[in-house]
Specification:
The chain has 360 residues and is an alpha/beta fold. The chain contains ten helices and 15 strands. 48% of the residues are buried. It binds 6-O-phosphono-beta-D-fructofuranose.
Length: 360
């Protein structure tokens, strides 16, 4: 019987458990493989006692549950692993130890469910000989070579529901509501939330904004009789000629740069145009909770296809969605960069056609 390991790495997102469930079920039903759950990302391949058998029985009921039953971390990169002893920290490349552990656990394959950072690590491990298959996850939808990642639609729905609520209070008080959403360096969540939730202004990293254009839009709306406005700001948005707002810088050994604060900066500038402004930062609400039906289905498709790739020994590949079909792509292609919002076509143009301003 083949043994397949599965881990979740990086930030969590709705749909991770649905992938784990599909991996375990299809491994059992279709191939009679054994599945080993590896806890807390790559930590489970480094530290002792962090693996467990996953069986169709042990994963019952997890389809609608947010988060990941395996736990996750974005601080366990085996190529830059951080050890702390007596208050001193040291960064070491322990990728060879990880490969040895994979061998001694008797794993024939490793399914890595993660975002761009985790998939890059998976690709590096593959280059060292590890039989890896990738599954793309993230609410940010920034992974190349897949039309969409699971988690994204749920996050957009959560943020859209928030906008619906903010509209009514904005209207009552004649205020401008600024809503900061996640998305890291790409504006997919802001763009789709802004359109789905009826925003007047959407600010995304791909289109550095001119605050005067934003102020003008709100002033024009007020002159036209609209006494409230909704402004959606992606956490990675930046003013023309300016920089992203950073809460914490990246650390060696894990811990990526953390963005945040641009919502308050934009809110403060807008208040100079004589409107009362309130700022809401949605934060991790967008990552939590039960996956929507679309994400449950996509996660299930991805989980099943990942096991199919293992069976066909198509290591070094990642499952992806193209059109309506599930395909696969090499992890080296995925590692080339990020999937950004096209600024001169598609949804940006749709939004501009209905009068939404991007501050340009
Ligand atoms: O990548 C997903 C994401 O939620 C980003 O949108 C956000 O910038 C980041 O993770 C937050 O990370 P953390 O959970 O480490 O604060």
């Amino acid at each position: 019987m083949k043994k397949v390991g599965v881990l979740t790495g990086g930030g969590d997102c709705p749909g991770l458990n649905a992938v784990i469930r599909a991996v375990v079920k299809s491994a059992s039903v279709k191939y009679n493989y054994q599945v080993i759950g590896i806890e807390d990302g790559f930590d489970g391949l480094v530290l002792p006692n962090k693996t467990r058998d996953l069986t169709p029985w042990s994963i019952r009921g997890i389809l609608p549950v947010g988060g990941t039953i395996l736990g996750t971390t974005n601080r366990s990169n085996p190529f830059e692993y951080k050890f702390t002893k007596d208050g001193k920290s040291e960064i070491r490349n322990i990728s060879r130890e990880v490969l040895n552990n994979i061998q001694s656990m008797g794993l024939d394959a490793l399914i890595v469910i993660g975002g761009d950072g985790t998939l890059k690590i998976a690709h590096e491990l593959f280059k060292l000989g590890c039989p890896v298959v990738g599954v793309p996850k993230t609410i940010d939808n920034d992974i190349l070579a897949t039309d969409v990642t699971f988690g994204f639609h749920t996050a957009v729905q959560t943020a859209t529901d928030a906008l619906d609520r903010l509209h009514t209070t904005a209207e009552s008080h004649h205020r401008v509501m600024v809503v900061e959403v996640m998305g890291r360096y790409v504006g997919w969540i802001a763009l789709e939330t802004g359109i789905g939730g009826g925003a007047d202004v959407i600010l995304i990293p791909e289109i550095p904004f001119d605050i005067e254009k934003v102020g003008q839009k709100i002033t024009d709306r007020r002159k036209g009789g609209s006494r409230s406005s909704i402004v959606v700001v992606s956490e990675g948005a930046k003013p023309r000629g300016g920089d992203v707002s950073v809460l914490y810088t990246a650390e060696a050994g894990g811990g990526a740069e953390r963005l945040g604060g641009i919502g308050n900066k934009v809110g403060a500038k807008i208040s100079c145009y004589g409107m009362e402004v309130r700022v809401t930062v949605l934060g991790h609400l967008q990552r939590g909770g039960s996956p929507c039906a679309f994400d449950r289905i996509l996660s299930t498709q991805f989980g099943v296809s990942a096991v199919d790739l293992v069976a066909r020994k198509r290591f070094g590949e990642m499952v992806c969605l193209r059109g309506k079909g599930i395909e696969s792509v090499s992890l080296s292609e995925v590692a080339q960069g990020q999937k950004t919002v096209p600024t001169e076509e598609g949804l940006v143009k749709v939004a501009e056609s209905i009068g939404i301003s991007f501050g340009r």
